[in-house]
Predict the structure.
Amino acid sequence: MNIPSGSAPPGGAPPHDARLAPALRVSDLRKTYDTGVEALKSVSLDVAPGDFYALLGPNGAGKSTLIGIVSSLVNKSSGTVEVFGTDLDADRSGAMRLLGLVPQELNFNMFEKPLDICVNYAGYYGIPRAQALLRAEEELKRAQLWDKADKMSRTLSGGMKRRLMIARAMMTRPRLLILDEPTAGVDIEIRRGMWKTLKEINAAGTTIILTTHYLEEAESLCRNLAIIDNGRIVEEGPMRTLLAKLDVEGFLFDVDGMLPAQLPQIEGATLIASDDHTLDMDMPRAMDLNRVFAAFEAAGIRVRSMRTKSNRLEELFVRLTGKPDAQDLTDKDVQMPRAALHSLPSQEAQELTDKDVLMPRAQDAQERRA
Amino acid sequence: MSNVMSNATSEPSIARKNLVALGTIVRREIMRILRIWGQTLMPPAITMTLYFLIFGGLIGSRVGQMDGIRYMDFIVPGLVMMSVIQNSYGNISSSFFGAKFGRHIEELLVSPMPNWVILLGYVSGAVLRGLIVGAIVLCVAMLFTKVRIPHPLVMLSSVLLGATIFSLAGFVNAVYAKKFDDIAIVPTFILTPLTYLGGVFYSVKLLPDWAEAATHANPIFYMVNAFRYGLLGVSDVSMWTAYALMLGFVVALGGLALWLLKRGIGMRS
């Protein structure tokens, strides 16, 4: 059952109010790990209140480090972070009260029930238990997990675990919600459901920052984006403006019959035969498609159907980072290294082995099927 | 459907929020102890019953008296304190390291609660387990001997301080631990020898001079003796020295634990 987000904007902040401080302001942020790896090299960005903001970049670009610093899980080397004007260094608690995090990797106790996970999480923020229980019901229903509220969370499927992390983050009604690849490893149906939930949350006034490897996801959800590569922001701005920068568009034409041996020459366009029945064409965005069809007509090529060659954001991403989009996460959504558990020595460690640790991957897959 | 948000009224104070956060951690720790009672509460009861049977009943009857006290009575305080220390230490080291290993420690690190609340929550849980186990062992002891408790305040305060010290020590161990072996090494190679050499089973007066002097460098010796004074009215050390040392350890280890949390050592990159 889906519950519309009927609650007031978290913290009472109206979206898109220019008078408010940015939901997130990062200034000259740098991070060098002890290993000497320079993960962030002077990153600065502003995210407006109410925005749905995408943070894109290839693996190892610095996205998770940036999110880690903002959520105080990673110590910065220098720079400043402000959440709705609250400086992280001056008032960490104040900043954290405004922020909700859905991390990339599962980070709840697999041996607790979803209800307990949500209620305890709210408790850490000082929300009394009675109030937390009511909120947990609301959030778990919105995440379609209410019927699993009293099941051990390790028995949830991968998609359910991801939704549980969103429900948990929403327990504190954050004004800024940061999601680090929230849909990684979930099937398309669940992903679309999560998009709907995130749109509802954003529409209710929560600013959302999203990192994702699914560029289609960013393009359909986000209004603004930053592309980070090698620890630097390489592009930032409104999605439409950035996509408009692409001056080349690609199309695939399915044709009736065999393609002629000699393809027509169209000035400004590049035409390649993908196979005997498919034409692959790159052309300037300003170019008139009628000219293309006229050339096809003259060459005796009859077009049966045409489609855009690739995701536009993907084009931009590849152009800016010089890398193809990374594949879906495979090993990131099931975490705990089981091998490490086989050598548990003490009684207390056994306690962990038996009760408090982990999740066979095969079992997870089985649960998904169930 | 309930909508609490719209019913929310005045914002609770920071102190009230911290109290709720503290209560949440303590409650969660207690639920953990009770959920796995077969591994947290039962083993010490069984082990100590065997100690009482073998050392107190069978061997103790041939030992006779220690410091003018029946041997069975003499070992009761030491065995209770040993259980308290080991269980407090084990509880916090496994619980906190488990949270690090399972990454759910991040739930606490991203929350607005101050570090002292996190530390106090975990320490309270560990102390509670130590006290529950101590009470169980004391009940088992009552099956074998009469327990009078001439100085109940000394008994309670010394057991509380002992549990707190080793909870803090277990926390520091868990902070630095990178694998499960790391939380087993300290109890095996440091805690157990110190406990057994801390006067649990004998009076230090039996030792040669050098060994007696060395025993005075063992903090567990002072805890066992303070507890023994509370339970039996005899001790190998002055109570002032014992309390000063125990309080000193609480302050030093507490300060170290808070500093580790502030720096995020072992927790934040």
Remarks:
- Residues 1-8 of chain B have pLDDT under 50 and may be disordered.
- The beta strands of chain B are 65-66, 69-70.
- Chain B has twelve helices and two strands.
